[in-house]
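The protein record minuted underneath.
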Amino acid sequence: MIKGSLVPNITIFTSNGEIDVEKTAWHMDWMLSKGVDGLFLTGSYGAGPLMSVEERIEIFKIAKKVASKYTGKVLIPHVGCIDTKSTIHLAQAAERLGVDAVASVPPFYYKHEENVVIQFYKDLIDSVKIPVFAYNNPETSRYTFTIKAVNTLMEYGMAGLKDSPLNISFLSRLAYEVEEKKRDFQIIPGTSMGWLPLYYMGVRAVIAGMNNWAPEIITELVRSTFTGDFDRARKVYIVMAELSSKMHFTDSTLVSHLALQARGYDAGFPRKPMLIPPSSDSKIEEVKEMLMGAFNTLGIPLE
């Protein structure tokens, strides 16, 4: 079972749109050094749909090199593409690099029937020997997983589900069915919101976007939960939730760039057509104040 907090890490680009290898590697290393337990690569935050297959494999290689400096860090490349062939190509390349698992959204853009989505995942599972996670992200894929679909894929060997919508009725039923049937299947929420109540349902890992720019807060949240210090965990959770709500003023990838700049780090550029907001200078000061307030409340040094 994967445990702890992972990050859907951003990919950092140069001003002319190339992967900034040095800054991307630095950012991965910085987060892992702050206690993040693993990397979820080339997902929505990581600009995967904006990158070529070859570029995404380059990110997998960078992550593997950075993670090799540590013990026990988890690597889960997101390999989802619009077509099955490219998805399998990415998954097999990731497997050859020695990652821990792969994950994929359903094939997107076109609206597919459930049987097509199930076949897509069966083909992916058959193509590799490492665990495969489905990624429930209906906002981008135009498909929402049902209990029936998840159960079908569970029977076929799907290792787990990364879930972004945080539909508590769906997740609670799925979590309790997994427990009742003693399935070897893991639910990993794609947001730190809901972490504490989902922990009581047996969830033991989270993929938290805040790790991109405030890994200390998520690390403290997970640490205090795992050690049973629930008074501290509740306090951190409340501060985390408040900070998260304040930071939802633009796309989460852009927020990550701005927050890193607010902390004094050169976060490079997102890939076009994404653009840092033109009013970023004043916003950076506002973000810095929000960060300082959250860190001071929790007694965590803000470097």
Summary: The longest helix spans residues 280-298. The domain at 4-298 is CATH 3.20.20.70 (TIM Barrel). The beta strands are 4-7, 38-41, 74-77, 102-104, 132-136, 160-163, 186-189, 205-207.
